[in-house]
Amino acid sequence: MAIDDVAIHTKFKLNGISYTKLGLMELVYDLLKEGSFFEKSIGTFLSEWLDEKPIIQVTTSGSTGKPKNISLKKKHMANSALATAKYFGLKEGSTALLCLPVDYIAGKMMLVRAMVLGLDLDYVEPSSKPLDEVNKYYGFAAMVPLQLEGSLAKIEMIKTLIVGGAALSKNLKAKIQQKNIVVFETFGMTETVTHVAVKRVNKAPEGSSGCFEALPNVTFATDERECLIISAPKVSDHRIVTNDIVKLISETEFDWLGRYDHIINSGGIKLFPEQIETKLAPMLRNRFFVTGLPDAKLGQKLVLVVEGELDTDKLKQILSECKGLQGFEIPKSVYTLPKFIETDTGKIRRKESCALLNY
């Protein structure tokens, strides 16, 4: 792919300024020389997008394993942008906000969508409250749940928001139900060039299934473990076998149940930590997760791990009285850690954090 083959839409704007390829190359020089830390990341990615190579090296977030570098084809990234445009009705000239770091695929793809589709894109420094300094309305944006939580007071300045990187809590979903904005939870990974499925989480139309729905040119199946298999020929040359356990509704819809590598087998009963954590979330302000630890009788016992200093005896009492939990979903033990081990994007490394426990 030569420079002249990299599509830059004639309607593309960045921070209100129209750019040709030559203009973008000059911007790259300025960002790399004089830009702030996050602007240098933008400059680096734009430089890679405009070079002669047909691929871009992208680093995974490390939420499901060690971070790794993978190669993505630029044509697949452009195809992902087109699928997003088709699903959400994005058109040339649509306004969009980039508030994610461009070090990872979600931020990179906001730039790609703008360049390929001809969006009017503004960027702000990534933070937990990205709308604090924003004083205009946008048609489209992408955030992680922490940013959505920190932007609730001004979130109606965005028309359509996609949220990914971590699951939306029940509490956060409740807070956005009456907001004048349409919010979608996304499902995807670096290997699928961000999302391949989305689920509407507020103001859902009557008759909506409440499931994840495939983007155009994407179909789903499951393997013998009931884990999701993704066929997305426009964004990947191969089928992608995941460790995400799902209930397949159709070849274009599924319910997400949890991660195969997180399943706890306690006395022959399979427990999905993510589902239990959803029930526990209203009771806990501190960050937490549930996991399985070795047990002579049960094989694995369900335990709760909380970040920070808490009265574990009091917490056990609260758990035992929680009507939302079935008997086998009540953690057998409670542990605390001063600080969880995290990925670079702030996600909890469960395995590494568990290694710090004394049990």
Please explain how this structure is put together.
This protein is an alpha/beta fold and 359 residues long. It contains nine helices and 20 strands. Strands 2-1-6-5-7-8-9-10-11-15-14-13-12 form a 13-stranded mixed sheet. Strands 18-19-20 form a three-stranded mixed sheet. A two-stranded antiparallel sheet has the order 3-4. Helix 6 links the parallel strand 8 and strand 9. Helix 3 crosses helix 4. The longest helix is centred in the first third of the chain and has 15 residues. It is globular. The termini are far apart.
Instruction: Quote the average pLDDT.
Output: 91
Q: Helix coverage percent of residues?
A: 25-40%
Please report the number of helical segments.
9
How much of the residues is beta strand, in percent?
25-35%
Instruction: Give the SSE string.
Output: EEHHEEHEHEEHEHEEEEEEEEEHEEHEH
Strand order of the largest sheet: 2-1-6-5-7-8-9-10-11-15-14-13-12
Main β-sheet, in a few words?
13 strands, mixed
Query: Radius of gyration, Cα only, in angstroms?
Result: 22 Å
What shape does the CA trace take?
Answer: globular
> Structural class, from helix and strand content?
alpha/beta
Q: How far apart are the termini?
A: 55 Å
Total strands: the figure is 20
Uncertain segments are: none
